[in-house]
Design a protein that fits this description.
Length: 157
């Protein structure tokens, strides 16, 4: 048995053609093709964003529970804050990580999480010591600024 790959526009034409034909014992594959074609389009996906706060939480500089509460109060979904439960956006926290899971069709942006993280750090007066860095496609990491000893060069001259 050979399978053909069909592009999405052609697939809809092909499905319309198959539904107009009668399924009988002479052609048992028609019902199978219809089920497979309809099953592919109804698949929903979600996107997960992770904010890793390992360094500041281990040093007891950042309270992850208050950070999670701040995010849940201020994340905008469909232009409204406090709209998380109705739109199936879930915020969970581990010991050092916060995960935001959202349906793919909502379009929750990673950039909004970075903006809110920076605002939280500014509110807690930690913005001068911590920065938000993208560690992968769907995750951010809070890191300390690297401070180098630049005063040694001035003392040598």
């Amino acid at each position: 048995m050979r399978f053909l790959r069909i592009s999405p526009p052609c697939l809809s034409i092909f499905c319309n053609f198959l539904t107009s034909r009668k399924c009988d014992d002479a052609n048992p594959i028609l019902p199978l093709l219809l089920v497979q074609a309809k099953g592919k389009t109804s698949k929903k996906s979600s996107v997960k964003f992770v904010i890793d706060c390992a360094a500041p939480v281990d040093d007891k500089v950042l309270d992850i529970a208050s950070f999670e509460k701040y995010l849940s109060e201020r994340i905008k979904v469909e232009g409204k804050t406090g709209n998380l439960a109705q739109t199936n956006v879930v915020i969970t926290r581990d010991r050092t990580k916060i995960t935001v899971a959202s349906p793919n069709d909502l379009g929750l942006s990673k950039r909004q999480l970075k903006y809110l993280s920076k605002r939280y750090l500014k509110k807690q007066q930690l913005r001068d010591y911590l920065r938000v860095i993208a560690s992968s496609k769907n995750s951010y990491e809070l890191k300390y600024y690297q401070i180098t000893a630049g005063d040694d060069d001035d003392a040598a001259e």
